[in-house]
Write a structure and sequence with these properties.
By secondary structure, the protein is an all-beta fold. It is built from no helices and 11 strands.
Length: 114
């Protein structure tokens, strides 16, 4: 069992930046690490995923604004979010996936508002 703990959410003005972190209780080496989000009244959606050495994938809505990165030594994955928009408001969840297993964090709230 791997515990994932997200941090870094908060209130930010449109155009601002935030950096989310996700700390894992175990090794993330070789795992696919992703960030998802769920806005009020909407389904959870993929934001970005890092395939451990492959090219990250991003949702079209965040391409050019968000960057996913990882530090395997720290068992941590990050999501740098720039040029934030009100429509980015959501609870952001961290995800770790290996063949046959999938873990989720409890989420961190990001609110983009003036």
């Amino acid at each position: 069992q791997v515990q994932l703990v997200e941090s870094g959410g908060g209130l930010v003005q449109p155009g601002g930046s935030l950096r989310l972190s996700c700390a894992a209780s175990g090794s993330i080496f070789g795992a696919a690490m992703g960030w998802y989000r769920q806005a009020p009244g909407k389904q959870r959606e993929l934001v970005a995923v890092d395939f451990s050495g492959g090219t990250p994938n991003y949702a079209d809505s965040v391409k050019g604004r968000f960057t996913i990165s990882r530090d395997n030594a720290k068992n941590t994955v990050y999501l740098q979010m720039n040029s934030l928009k009100p429509e980015d408001t959501a609870v952001y969840y961290c995800n770790l996936e290996r063949p046959g297993v999938r873990y989720w964090g409890k989420g961190t709230l990001v609110t983009v508002s003036s």
